[in-house]
Design goal:
Helix content is 14%, strand content 45%. The chain is mainly β and 175 residues long. The protein has one domain.
Length: 175
Amino acid sequence: MKGSTLFNRVKKSCMVAMLAAGMLLGATAGAQAVDFKAKGQWLVGFGLGDARMNGGGNKADLFSATQRFRVQLDAIASENLSGRLWFEIGNQDWGRNNTSRGGGGALGADGDRAIKIKNAYIDWIVPQTDLKVRMGIQNVTLPNAAGGSSVIGATDVAGITASYQFNDMVGLTAF
């Protein structure tokens, strides 16, 4: 069952990536080139402490190590058309098979939830307008003066976002 679930997740992820790439490349038939840019981060943290301070007694480890790896691929066809695919691997606790944090840190380190698609979207501008459209898995944050949004804050969602800037002071965004 686990292998089947992993296969279905990988299959869905590949389909989303191929759909985004197909839409991006299909829409740029008249373009001469697509620039690809890759960047990312690899975070590794280590800790050493007294297990008694955590209330774990002798059950808690003195040493801990965690890692997370992110890869971001940007495809830029023009100032009017671009796309982003952003993978995240982790958080993985070394030596633990903690599935709530992605798994894959224990022996046999191939957790079925270790690789996630953080973002997969295309950005385009409606021809002969200033209307900007973003379609796909994207980060959505609603504004709030202090303490984050009580409605939706820094959440990755699948959807369509459209934004229009009327002037320097007034803009409208809908999702």
